[in-house]
Amino acid sequence: MNASWRHSLVYLTVIAVVGISVVFGALFISATNMVTRQRAQEESTENIGRLLDIVESTVGIACFVGDQALAQEVAHGLLKNPEVLGVVIRNDKQELAHTYRVLSTPQLAEQAVKARLSRVVRSPFNPNERVGEIYLDPNPDEIDRQIKQDVSFVGLMLTLQIAGTIAAIILVLIYLIVKPIKRMSDRLHQMDAAAGNQLRIPKGHANTEIGRLANDINALAGHLMASLEDERELRHLSEIGEKKYQAIFANAETGIFIANRESAIESFNPAFSRLLDMHPDTMERNGKKHIADLAWCIPARLSQLICDCIDNNKMCSDDLELGAGNKLTRWLNLVLSPIGDNMVQGVVVDVTERKLSESTALRQAVTDPLTGLANRHGFGHEVMQLIKQHENDPGKCFALMLINLDGFKRVNEALGMPMGDAVLKVAALRLNNCLKSGDTVARIGGDEYAAILPNATGEELSSVIAERIISVLRENFDVHSTPIKLGASIGIAFFPSDGKDLPALLRDAELALSRAKSTGGNQFNFFDTGMTEAAERRRAMETDMHQALPRNEFELFYQPIVDLVSNQLAGAEALIRWHHPEKGLIPPDAFIPLAEETGFIVELGSWILETASRQLAEWQTAGKDYYISINVSGHQIPNGITPEKLAETIRRYGINPSRLALEITEGVLLADVNQALSWLQAVRELGCRIYLDDFGTGYSSLSYLKRFPVTTVKVDKSFVRDMSKDSSDLALVEAIVAMARSLGLNVVAEGVETMAQLELLRQMNCRSIQGYYFSKPVPIEQFAKVATRVEALLASTKNLTAG
Amino acid sequence: MCRAHYAAAAVSWRSSFCNIALLFVFVIMAVGETPVSADELAVVANPRSGIDQLSHDEVINIFMGRSRQLSSGITAQPIDLPATQAEKTNFYRLLVNKDLAEINSYWARLHFSGRIPPPMVAKNAANVIEIVASTPGAIGYINQSMVTTTVKQVFELGTQQYERELAP
Hints:
The structure holds two protein chains of two kinds. Chain A is 54% helix and 20% strand. Chain A is an alpha+beta fold. Chain B is α/β, with parallel strands linked by helices. Chain B folds into two domains: 1-32; 36-166, Periplasmic binding protein-like II (D-Maltodextrin-Binding Protein, domain 2). Chain B is built from seven helices and five strands. In chain B, strands 3-2-4-1-5 form a five-stranded mixed beta sheet, with helices on both faces. The two termini of chain B are 30 Å apart. The interface between A and B is medium-sized, with 14 and 15 residues.
């Protein structure tokens, strides 16, 4: 209590009250000073004025008669009043009296003069007449004295009041606040809240702030007790829960453990030690077992997993292989959850079986079951791996080969699938033998193999390998003692120069392969960018071609064929023309091969047949006996233009079938002899004629002429063109014409351009002539005009010959 | 402007009020003091005094002791009547509008210094005429009817004077 009195409420209150009182007292006293001064001055002025009133009549008389003695008597009388400092009386002639008292402070004299009161003195008999003046100076000493008196009185009163107030406050504070608080504090020290004790409210404070404070303390104590009770209850519950989990922990089949960042195990369950085959002696380090010290195949992985789990505060899980050095490893799945304080809680499950079945499934997914090679999926995976390696090491390049067995389809069709499968197996084996251990070979489709050659990055080395592959695949396949001969085509693309991803590489190699196949097979081809462009051009043309039919971009041109015997225009060959909206007129040899390849030829052929038939019908109606020959591609036989379709068209247009000629090439006959023969016979039976086109350029097997029901042979224009210069060509044409005549076949000579050629052919008794000499192929609108011109030309040549 | 108008109106109102008050006073006077107008007072001087006429103020100055020097150079000697004489009361009333008590008080105060003596008191009006007639500087007052040839009337105090005195 001795030193703390400075902090007591009483002390602080007294200090505050005294401080505030002093400030306000000073203000009040100074205000009093001011007010008193003013009042004192006013009062003195008033008093003096009153004095003047008293002496006014006497002074009036003194001034009226100029009586100095009387004036002085009045002045002395006035000076007896302490408020008067001095008096001056004068009439209009002279100063009658001048009396001043001595001032205690001479400086005040000036102030007195300022406050001087003057009054005009009037005649006692005539108020209008002014007879003199009286001046009265108030006494500042007296005013000061009065002020001092007032101020000291006020000061005294204030001091007494403050003293009284302080005393009252101290008493009130002590009895109303300090003592009750002290009493409450003492009771609090002895109170036992746990025993339900309550703080008693001091007497008379039931409704005061003290009482409220006591109530609040009681309420707080109650809350605290309730919280403590809850806490106790919770602890009890959690103990029960812990016991429950303890049982789960001990009896679980799953391994459970808690470890710190250094993988030191804090606790674990029996299943954990079973699963991990823990030998206490091997794992002891610093007196603690470390899970990372077990025989993990990749020991760093576990430590990393624990660190990841703690650092990211995230659940982590991974499959880890246990049993380094053993033959039989086991896979364990670890799920780690962070539990704070640099600790993780882990759950361990044996997933060896799942891993095994997974890896089996994975292997099956990437393996071709027939050959045991990688399948398309596995191959893709492998290529992706290599591409990924290249990202890390840009020096890593590789060659991708696509290998196709030429003629495999035929084997499959002719000898059956089992034989085909056997061939594929043998081919796979041979391919494997050709390649090194680092290379990969896969079967990515029916008879299509692919190889990745990480070492053969140059064209030279790749060429050697490709040649070796072609040569081993050309050897006879002896399957079930049936010798089978096949060939192989190979397309090669390089990573990354030809393509930077799998689809691009496959496309490039496929293009190179197509090139190899289309140029005869049994060879290999490297991809070059020209292939992509060509493929792009072909694709564009294919699209255009399909649109050309509905857009009516195709047109048939007709080239007259002249009969030299009757010396008349006999008919015309219908030739297809394509008016491309952008590229202009496209010659048939630029798009017919593509049409054949894509099968569009069937549609186009139907259109040609339809158009030519309509034209024939028109001519027939016009009474013109011309015939039309149309070209039929091998791809249209036998399904493109079937005999039934032909018959139906002829019937529909009501045309004479003998006026319709179908031109075929020798190739048609070569492909499938029996099929071609039956088709030809059916067509012949309909009455149509068959022209063998380009005779002399291919195999030109004479036996065909005998075997197939051909009606006419067309001598190729190359022979006709050189006939007049080259004697062997001339002989050839002569032989063909003679042979045809002996077989009873008609001959059409194509490409006749000069009169000399015409004359030669006429001498050979070649009957039909086609060529620029008479006319180039023309649109149908010009045909009538051309026909007239041809007739005229024939007439003139006949005359010439006759002549 | 407005305020000035109001002030002017107030002034004119006050002056008219004063006039009414004065009128009222005259009426009272006229009723109460009818004899005064009958006996008018004459201020008389020795014929050899050298003056023919005195002004009202000169009469006041002489009788009230302010200045007793006449214009002719003779020192004036005022002669009063005793308080018993009605003319005295009448004289001071007409001269300075004061009653005798006031006049006595006036002289009592001047008496203190003794420098200016009050007028000499004659026995009666006849005595006044006698003194005035014999003393060159003497100046007295009597009923006009009593003026003799031995004295010269130099001022007449009557109702006019009275009115004049009252006039502001």
